[in-house]
Structure formats: structure tokens, C-alpha cells
Amino acid sequence: MSQQHTPLWEVFVRARRGLAHTHVGSLHAPDAELALRNARDLYTRRQEGVSIWVVPASAITASSPDEKDSFFDPAADKVYRHPTFYEVPEGVAHL
Amino acid sequence: MYGNDFPGEDPPGGLLGEVEAAEAALRAAAERGRGAIEPSEDLAAYFAEVVAADQKIEPRDWMPEAYRRTLIRQIAQHAHSEIIGMQPEGNWISRAPSLKRKAILLAKVQDEAGHGLYLYAAAETLGVSRDELVDLLLNGRQKYSSIFNYPTLSWADVGAIGWLVDGAAIVNQVPLCRCSYGPYARAMIRVCKEESFHQRQGYEILHTLAHGTPAQKAMAQESVDRWWYPSLAMFGPPDGDSTHSAQSMAWKIKRFSNDELRQRFVDMCVGQAEVLGLHIPDPELRWNEERQAYDFTQPDYDELMRVIKGNGPCNRQRMEHRRRAHSEGAWVREAAAAYAAKRAEKEKVAA
């Protein structure tokens, strides 16, 4: 059946102007144009968005959960990147 | 009384409030600290710890094979139910009593299709394809909720389905917003928010009929009489006979037992029926001061088993219709695929 290989698309919706597009789910469609129309019917029936992105799921590269530790390790020991790391002397304003 | 986080406390705003509370709990749990086990040390212990902390398991996390299989079965059956559930109400679209009612019913049936698609998408994150699941439905190897094997004989049935069937579904589904599997929980939050419109539109239909002419009121009552017990049966067999419950509770896929949810539904409906001025067809229904809950007559579980096994009033009709719709839609899918292939080819030549 031709439908066996209908590609999977990931859908991102911008809820309002000023907000970033957020992943809302996925759907199947033969091409980008239909993916966009299907996304409108499936994910914005109640005015949930003002803009939609559809991305072929096969085009997404994800970090692997197996190497979660080593991959994010470089950030783990750098607490000094957070402002809360620093002690502010008594009485200093606007800092 | 909802969820393990808020013992004895009813979040405001009824069902929608509960969905919002589940959404907030999802966020809060994600920010809470957890034990120190890392996935690289012990996969099973890490899984157990995430579930114990009420955090979510995500698609690429390690999970026990039985957990994956249980979720695929449950989410797929749920998706199939939404798709088959379009039929009983679809039966009344062309005969709705006004343009307003017709537009509302169309929107509702379209929502059911949407719910089916959210759920198939959630199931696909577990490594099964939607086409496989559709095939399992079409060749009868996976089931859908037995409630959709009952016919819609009158317009009042559209109201009774909204009030009782969607009402029972919501009581079943609101706890699923707290399910341990992330994509399922998120799909259910979306579904429950939309279901709330379904339940209210059904209630409004019955309320209008029950306050209309004596004939309209009788039609509403006759419909409630027919849908009451099948709706109670939607919560599944009594706890003693329920095969999958204990493990699903331990995995936090399921949060409450069948009997607990059924009781909750009955307690909700009594007051709503009074406002409708309709009668719940149960002579044994009465308040039990000691239990602080209503005593009621259990549905006929032998009938439930018969319907599940394929011998309800409409099983064959529902499956035939679905198979026909699927095969009659084949040319559309083929044409869209051919068009996409042709366009891709042209772009390749141009590039």
C-alpha cells in the first residue's frame, strides 16, 4: 500500500506573537504542503496558534539519552556561570 | 479528591481544574530533585526512580519491554475508540434539529478524529507505526471501547453520549493526564480540555429536551435509560476480575482502580441528573452515609463480555463501515503520494 511510507512530520506552533514556536506533536503527510494543512486542522482547531512550522521527523538529529552524562558533563561543574555563585557585598545596589 | 499529590482536596473548577492541576504537577515534578541514580549505572533502577518521583518517561529512555507493550496496547485501543466513536454520532449529523446543532456536532466529530490522531502519534513514539496499528484494528486483533457498539436511535442519544459516555470517558481519562509516559500524558491533557466541551454540549441537549414538550422529555429519559448501564460498564470489569490493573498501577500508567472511578462517576451524575429533571434508571441508587458515596446497581458484566467478544448490537456494522471507509479512501492517499513524488522529482531536476 502506498500509505505505508507516508512521512512523519514534527509540528511546532507559535501560540502568539512574541512567543517561540513550541513542539506540539507529529503527524503523517505525503508532502510539506499537506503537512501544513493537516497541522492546521489537527493542532489549531481552537486558535492555538498564529504560525506553524512542519519539519520532516527524519531531518531532526537528537542527542542520545545513552550518552546523557558525558554529553552534558561540561556544564555540570561550571556553577560560576550562574549569577547566584557570587557573593555580593552588603550595601551594593544595581548589581 | 484527585491525584496522589492532593489527598482529600478537590481542585477548583471541576474537571478542567483537575486537568490544569495535572499539568502543573507535570511541571513541578520535572523541576523536583530525584535520587542520584544515573541511567548509565542501572537502567531499571533509574526507570523505577523516575516513575517513583512522578517524573515522566520519554520516548528514548530505557523502559521495561512489558511497560512498552502495555502502553502500545492501551494507547492504540484508546486511539481506535476515538476513530470508531465518530460513527454513532456521525449518524445524526445530517439529521440534527438545527443548523447550530449540526455545526456543533460536526466540530465534535472532527475533534474525535483529532483525538485519535494525537493518540496514534503518542503510540508511534514507542516504536510502532500507525499503519501497523490501523491494520490491527481493521483485522480485529485490537479492540476499541465496547460502548461504541450500541446504536444511536434518537437525537437524544447525541445528548446522552455527550453527558454520560463522554462524562465517563473524562473520569477515566483525567487521571491519565498524570500517566508516567510523557507523550501519553501530554496527549491526554489536550484531549481532556477538548472533551469538556463535548460533555457540556451533550448536557445542554438533554437539558433542552428535558425542559421541552412531554414527548421531548420522554425521548431524553428513554435515552438515559438505555445509556446508563453501558456507560457504567465503560470503567471495565470489577477490580477483582481486572487482569491488567495491578501492574499498570505500579507503573503509574493507571492511577485509580476501575471500581473507584465508577463510583466517582455515579456520585457525579446523581446531582447532574436532578438538575436535568431526569431519572437514573436504578431503583437501588441511594446515598450511603457511612461510605459517603452512593450505593448503586452494577452493570451487567456478562453483557459487557459479550459485546467485547464481538456480539454487541453494532460490532459488525462498525467494523464494516471502518474497513469500507479505509479502502474507499485508498485512492486519495495514493494520489497524494503520487503528487508528492512527482513534485519531489521536478525539484530534483530543477536543482
From TrEMBL, chain A:
InterPro entries listed in its UniProt record: PaaB, PaaB_sf
Pfam family name, one: PaaB
Origin: domain of life: Bacteria
The protein, known as: Phenylacetate-CoA oxygenase subunit PaaB
Automatic annotation (TrEMBL), chain B:
Gene3D superfamilies xref list: 1.20.1260.10
Pfam families associated with the record: PaaA_PaaC
PANTHER family documented for this protein: 1,2-PHENYLACETYL-COA EPOXIDASE, SUBUNIT A (PTHR30458:SF2), PHENYLACETIC ACID DEGRADATION PROTEIN PAA (PTHR30458)
NCBIfam families listed in its UniProt record: PA_CoA_Oxy1
This protein's name: Phenylacetate-CoA oxygenase subunit PaaA
Gene name tied to this protein: paaA
